[in-house]
Amino acid sequence: MSKYLDLFFFGIVFFFATTSSNVAYSWDKSPIALQNYPYLFLLTQKSENTTFLLEQGKLRFANGQFLEAANLWQKASIAFEHQGDKLNQAWSLSYLSLAYQHLGEWQKAQTTINHSLKLLQHSHTTINYAILAVALNTQGKLNLSTGKAELALKSWQEAERAYIATGDKLGEIGSKINQAQALQAMGLYRRAKNVLIDINQQLQQQQDSPLKLKALRSLGVTLQVVGDFNQSEAALAESLKISNKLNLREESSEILMSLGNTQRSVQNIPTALNYYQQAVANTINLQVKVEALLNQLSLYIEISQNDYAKSLISSIETQLTSLPPSRNSIYASINFAKSISELAEKEKDNLGKHQKYQKAENILEKARNQAEELGDLRAKAYVLNELSKLYSLSQKYHLALELSQQSLKVAQEINAADIFYQAAWQIGRISNHLGDKNTAYSAYKSSVETLKSLRSDLVAINSDVQFSFQKSVEPVYREYVSLLLEESNPGEEKLQEARKVIEALQLAELDNFFREVCIDTKPENIDKIDQTAAVIYPIILPDRLEVILSVPGKASLSKYRIALPEAEIGKTIGLMRQSLNPVFSSQVRSQVSQQLYNWLIRPAEVELSRRNIETLVFVLDGSLRNLPMSGLHDGKQYLIEKYNIALSPGLQLMRSQPNQGKHLKVIAAGLSEARQDFKPLPGVELEIAEITANLSTKTLLNQDFTNSKIRSEIKSTPFTVLHLATHGQFSSQSEETFIVTWDGKIKVKQLDELLAARTENESSPIELIVLSACQTAKGDNRAILGLAGMAVRSGARSTLGTLWAVQDESTAKFMSEFYKQLRQPGISKAEALRNTQISFLKNTNQDFQHPFYWAGFVLIGNWL
Predict the structure, then answer these.
(1) What CA–CA distance (Å, rounded) separates 491 from 528?
(2) What secondary structure, in 3-state letters, does 433-468 show?
(3) Confidence band (pLDDT; 50, 70, 90) for 378?
């Protein structure tokens, strides 16, 4: 990720946020400026030659001549010291520390800024506070560059107080933007986002300025990281507009790279590459150029454009070598080594593979030396673990294990949980490979427990280094489960642990979907929820499908295994999904649905019968989530004919009130007319009319179903059921999960906000949300996360949705029957759904007997 808050200095960047009348920053000698700081005017009159040194240093710094700037500022500080001028000496030292930072002279930078702050500590004049603020900003920049984000935050908080003492409002805002950067480096992205939103609101009415540009860009980057991609693009585009207007070329290059990152996040590959290429072409900043090239490299590898990727290696290597040592350069080296390692894995020629591994190893060894020279323990821990991964690929397992153990130790010392989990994971992998099962169990357990503690900031794990949830988090859980269930009879303790890990993975996926913790959970026992329900946990592993069964009244869990490669399991699941299309072969559908029944249900049939189970609750994994369990067939009948069926992310459920039958109160909103390029749904009018005729209902149809009206009704109308009969989409990205209203769209996070006040009112809880015309996004294998996410995040006890777009007329009839069933006192939601599905299946009207019309309706959450 680009270092979007790099320092450009006077009047440009907010580390030294200025106004035209602030002498403390600009050395403006105009009468207006001097009336603020008359003492400083007296000093400059006495010391014209020394002042000239400062000004020349600024010019050299602005031109990237950091060594020349350092020499000039060093002379200035010595001259001011001889004159007994402590304030200007402190100021010169602050500048000098900044130059040393850009030269990679970290110890000199630290010594110099410490001296500057010591000179300022006993004076409390207004001018002293102004210079103190500048020095504290320099100290914060140094702390962040050397991996001390917490100290950087503290420095910038002190700088904010110093600016407040001088009445410098823009300086105060600038320090808050700096604080947001420190919060991001600490992984606290939501806090950073809130700070930046507040800042941008303050700057909204002000004229375009470098400070406004920086605030917008920082907000855009933060929004990208937390998954608000549309808002991210808008903020970045606005900052680019300001940058171009002010002719700030370097700023424009960094913004272009940030725009590329946002486009990459939404898989708009050509646009992302174009932004990266523009960033390279427009910048003279070597760090920005290297990072933009690295982003191109990793993206080419991601889309298997290996020849284009290889063409960039030589250029990146040359320019990376020219960067001064810093955390930025270390992270860039890690990214480079990881990309080269990925290219090595694709090499068919062993010699070519070996050469690339050796190149990656050399890059990481140099990065390790830089981290040790800087004393940057975080960077060192990351490099050590990346080296361990590389040595593992080269089958140097004992050396790899030693490096990860070193990484783990450093991470533990500095309380870096995000590094600790990765090092523990690597130790678990290597130990398992070496046959040391006990160490592997312990390491994986530590890694998973650490990931749980990181829930609130999982999205922010080392955003400066390539990170993907599916590559860097999800496998930890799966590999641990695979290890726990390796034996045919692993024992109760391991089965219980495996179940906990499966549920933790489900929640981690939802957290990643929302880019924040989606719900606070409390583990529940199935016996406490429903004495007649069993929970089935299938989990797809590379070499097999494992299924854990939990039934009430039984002290221990049980499990069974289907020993098939993941690819074959996935092929069968995909075929089952296709076969649910009415035009598909009924014979194939019958065969594949029986195959899945044999995998998931057949081994448990005896136990389910013996325990008098009435409801099956599935905690589904991976692509299994795209399948309706009701459509499984045992050769004689569908699963729905034997059991009530519900889905859940686990037993972390909100308590449900008993079904209130005829006393259900409904808000029913829908669109029957075409809106926003979505086709009309004429059956919606019938659907809502049927609900209104039989239940206490507040209706919002077509032009009455606006964002503001639904918000108002949810806030003011007592209800237990929210029925939304409209187009909508469930996606693996929260930004693309929405429902359509007359005048716009309501995204899943907005729905959460709409319902927040209602869920706090436990006297009238939301029992059920019905999404009758929404569907999973086409071509998105993880789209069901959107439905699960909406179900969990809404605060409702249960959610009824559809896995695909069901025919309009049949949906209206289905919903009419469902509410007819639900009105019966004492019936559970799962039972009402089952009865409705069976009524379609057994209806003499052949039009709707096919599972396409009834199997796609799924109940998520509490089934009672």
Answers:
(1) 23
(2) HCCCHHHHHHHHHHHHHHHHHCHHHHHHCCCCCCCC
(3) confident
